[in-house]
Amino acid sequence: MKDSKIITGIDIGTTKIAIIIAEKKDGILNILGFGKSNSHGLNKGIVVDIEKTTSSINKAIKEAEKQAGIEVESAYVGLTGEHIKGINCSGAISISSNEYKNPAGEQIEQKDIDKVLEHSQAINLSPDRKILHILSREFKVDEKRGIKNPLGLSGHRLEANVHLVTIQRNIEKDLETCIEQCGIDVDGFILEPLASSSSVLDDNEKKLGSILIDIGGGTSDIIIHHNDSIMHTGAIPLGGENITKDIAFGLQTSLEQAEILKCKYGIAKESLANSDNKIKILGTNGREDQEISEKDLATIIQPRLIEIFTLSKNEINKSEFKGDFTFGIILTGGGSAMKNISDLASEIFKMPIKTGIPDSINGKIEIINNPRFSTAIGIVQYVINNRNSLYEKINLKKDKTIYSLIKTKFNQIIKYFN
């Protein structure tokens, strides 16, 4: 599967697992199979129960495989969580040391680009952390700035400004263990907001400036784009699951019913809710049924969304980039589907707001028109767009030990007989 045009992307979230099997044929990306399941064994993107997480992933995989009519051997996996840290770094090398012998400098080759990118990674990381992505922002050749691809240019000095994304090794390893126990090899891990950007942002939004906020179940991810570069990445430990728990607590109902109330009747802004619209809540475990208004429900939802947006704004303010964002804020993820959420967000951010849905892929309307699946679709699109890229390197699993390869093959045999 690794050498074919069929790509599998797995979005492992706190509340759901979503899997996309897609094929690029004649320049068109088509969804062959889709699978989803409720997520168990995770907390804010971190595995807390290997067995439950593996079971949840396996359920979604089987659904996607059945629909696609193929067996998944390997996949790219999304990674999120508060443990992910982004940092802007730079590195520089000399191309030509003799300005008198060659005043124009030497022509920049691929080995020079690789070398300067390697220099830009020379940061002190604790042993428990590793670099997930090296996202080049721009290159500088002598005094010329804003260069995206310096290959073939001439100069004496080459500098690279990059955005490094670092993660905790054990969190990545735990996810890898779950995937391998499903009999699937991990091709690489991809930062989830980076994947979501691939599915919901167009070229103009990436070039002229935009901020993507992906409201997931356990976390909300932030990624800032400008001039076709990643300026900042971050995450806050709040998401749609917190709203569900608030509803369950405030109305003394089950989490299952709270989730239904949120998705079916939830309104983000209290002033836009109707106090005359009544909602019946079934009593749980012997409790009596109750009736609340649409406005009562919004009163519970709005404070938590304000907190999510306020913390997101604080994270955005950490960015070194202080310029303008032509296209403002793009909301995506399951939490962005709530009614009137753009009205509330515009009050807090004082920017244009829109909801981003996946684009440039063929599949069922309920999948491609749903912001809940932006990340799963985006993983596939990111891989397709960046497979041969020299500037945005995916952390491929080329260093697998013989033991881990045998373990994966053994799990594939177990999967086959099951």
Tally of alpha and pi helices: 12
Distance between the termini: 21 Å
Mean pLDDT: 89
| Oligomeric state of shown chains | single chain
Describe, in plain words, how this protein is organized in 3D.
With 418 residues, this protein is α+β, with helices and mostly antiparallel strands. It is built from 12 helices and 22 strands. A 6-stranded mixed β-sheet has the order 3-2-1-6-13-22, with helices on both faces. Strands 7, 9, 10, 12 and 21 form a 5-stranded antiparallel β-sheet that branches. Helix 4 (192-200) packs across helix 11 (374-386). The chain is globular, with a radius of gyration of 23 Å. The two termini are 21 Å apart.
